[in-house]
Give the backbone structure.
Amino acid sequence: MLKDHPDQTTSLIPKLSIATVGLMFIAGFMATNAFDLWGQVISPSLGFATLSPHGLAKSFLGKFGLPNSNYAGYFFHFYLVGLIGYPIGWLFVFEPIWTRVTGNKFNWFVSSAVYGVGLWVFAIGGITTIAGLPFFLNFTGITWVALVGHVLYGIVLVALLQIITPRSSEV
């Protein structure tokens, strides 16, 4: 939900409402599907690595002694990360800071791609290390497929928020 005017007196952080939660779920659902389509269908069909994000989620959960079945891994990745965590990160953390710092000098596409790179660093650089896996998965093929996947996630998430969110001039 990028603001048209970053110098406006209203908060850069959206109000938490049923509409905001609905937007998060719809955009997060579609972005997660784009991520999975890329990582589990398109990338391997092109001869690149296959992403298995539920495996990382299972390792992460297991590190803390939590249930780490396949179901738990899929649930954690799809619902907690894709539908809730990453959309919250965009709406309530990254986008307000980005807007404050850059003054919206860049369009939503640039900021969403930068957000995707940040998600990649967080997931593949940070979470893998916490889960006891090699840092950035030793920069193997899966690392780069994950980079594309996370950038794609960010772009799809923000594109849908742009399409669905009414602009202040329309309200």
